[in-house]
Structures are given as C-alpha cells and as structure tokens.
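ugh ok fine here u go
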Amino acid sequence: MTDPAHDDYLFDPAATPDPEVARLESLLRPYRYGGGAGTAAEASQPTTEDTATAAGSGDADAVAANSAVARTTATASAASATSDSVMNSAAAAATAAAATAAQSIPSNQSRRPLFLFYAAALCLTLILGALAAREMLDRFMTQGRTTRSTETDRKDDTNLKTETDRSTDRPGDVTGQDLAGLPIQVLAGSPALNGVTFVPGDRLLPGARLTTDAVSRARIELSHGARNYGRIDVEPGTDLSLIIANSGEQRLSLARGEIRALTWAPPRLLFIETPSAVAVDLGCSYTLKVDADGRGLLSVTSGYVAFERDGRESLVPRGASCATEVGRGPGTPYFDDAPDALKDALHRFDFSDDKRAALPEILQAATRSKDTLTLWHLLPRLAGDDRLSATSLTMKLVPPPSDVDFARAAALDPAVTGAWKAWLRVHW
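structure:
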C-alpha cells in the first residue's frame, strides 16, 4: 500500500513522488506520448532518469525490465510492418485515436492514473485481436467457398455428361457409345462376325452381327469400361446384332435363334429386341427363343423379366414363360408347370380370334394360387362380365386384403390395384 504522505503526488505534480508509483512510471515511460517526435524504438530506450529512479526505489530489476520492454516493442514494430493492409489500417486508426485523446489532456495531467494505461492497452489488444480473428475467418470462408464451388462444378459436369449420354442413346445411333464394343468368346465351332469367321480378339461393335451355324456357340460379355454386367450365351443357329452399348443401356436384337442371358446389372439395363416384343431385364437369368416366323418364347429361370410391346407388358417371374407373335405382341404369362389345358387355352386367347370361347377353359383350368399370375394379366385384357368373372376367381384363389374391395378391383382402380398386385405377387 502507498504511503499516505505521498497521496498528493497523484494530483499535485509538486508533491513528493510515491516510490512505487515512481517505479511504475519508470517502467511505463517508454510508452508515453511524445508529441509526434522520435520513433517507437527511440521512445523505448530507457533514460538516465529512469535508471536512477529505479535504483532509488530499491528495484534492481527496473533496468532489465525496461530493456525487455524495448525488445518486445521493437519486435512488435517489425511484425506490424509486415502485416497486411487490414491490420495496418486498424493500427493506424488506433494510434490516431490515442494521439487525439492525449492532445486533449492538459499538460498538468500528463501523469494520469494507472488504470487509464491499462484500459487503453486492453482496448487496443481487443481491437487488434478482433481484426485478426475476422481476417482468419474470411480466409477460411473463402477457402470453403472455393472448395464447394469446385465440387459443384464437378457434379455439374457429371450430370451434364449423364444427360448427354441419355439424349444420344437412341437405337441405331452410336453417338456416346462404347465404340470398343463387347468382348466375344468362342464356345464351340466357328461363329461369324458380319459374315466373316470370327478371329480371336474380335469384338461385337454397334451395328455388327454375330451369327452361329448348327454347331457353333459363342459368349458375349456385357460390359462397359471396367464394369461387367453379365453375359449372353449364343446358341447354334442364331442371328444376333448389337444396337447400343454404353453404361446406361445394353441393347441387342435377336432376329432368330436362341440366347441364354445372365445379368447382375441394375434393372432395365439389358434390352433384347425380337420381331414382336422386347425383353427387359429386371435382374435375372432367362432364355429367349425366336423362330423363322418371328414367334418368340421367353422363359425365366431367376428374377423377373418384363416382356413389352406398344404399351402392353407381361411381367414374367422365375419359373414362368410368355409367348409372343408378330402383329400381336406378348401374350399372357403362365407358370411352366401349369396344366396343358391352361396353356392351350391361353395360346388361343392370345393369338387367335376365338377369345370368348377360350376364356371359360382358362377359368376352369386355373385352380392354384400361383395361377393368379395368369388371371391378373388377363384382367386389363377383358371387359364387362368377363372381367367380373376373372376378378371373382382371382379373389377366390387368393383372398384379398381388407382394403381391396371387389367393385374397385374389378374396375382396376389405381387406388387399390397396387396393393392388390403386391399381395398376389407373394404367390408368384
């Protein structure tokens, strides 16, 4: 605590200085306002008066402290000289404000209370710290925006490429395709590529034809780049052409003969065209045959295949088959172990003009729960009382869920057909 005898010194410059206050003034004198004369380095040098005062107060470390302050001030001056424009502007503003405040103080109050020094130093430190933090944040945000912009550009480029591929993938158009074609492997005999005997290393290119005679067999690898989607085994007596080959679609045309396809590709990647329908792979394996008249037969051994033509679709599950004919499209699917009476009646219904006579035979032969596969596909191909009869039999073989009523089901109301079909598929 200071000596009460020296208390007047804080307010009367003529009074005797308190030793502790004199010591603090000696330490802080390098930071006093010099009216603009001299440099920060000069102001930081300890004076003879400072040294004498420190020694007189009994503080032997005052000189060393002044020297440390001088080195710190010089280092800070050098660092501030290399700061960017934002920091220089902030320091200049702080210095100008301090000078203005000092000039406004009368000379007889130059030795103001210590708390003013601490308050000014604290304010300046906070200002400079806030500016530095803001600069670091701005740099971080700028870097983040640049990174996100780069990622967005990459995604946009990928999306643009995908859309371009889709827009150019048209039957007969090789634009955007894998012009390297599909690999071919000889399994037996001498398959021909465009009428010429196959040479090892040849590939099936878009627009090219692969044909096999009565003793020849070949295998086509379904691929694009490094990705493999499955394979197609080409049996004897087959004429097969490649239409499209890219990462979004593999489309071939089977003019005649037999193929066996196995794929693990995403649904609707492999398409096999025939003269009367298109087989659309939904993740499966199947056999597809086409005779000299363009009649075809699709038999599925795993998964599902959609047999389509002009908006008409037959969904063929494992263990089922579906026939197709030129001019009529795909018929009604049936399970391979169905009674012959059901198969014969279906063939007449699908490919002759005797539909009304064949329908009662179908309804009589369909006696198993999985025969609802056939009945379900018949419903949109029937009308009036015929549809009511088929709906009634379907609900008899597999009772529907409580939210599927007869009237709405017979009307093929979209609000109930989805749930009804999912219910029936459990038995297929």
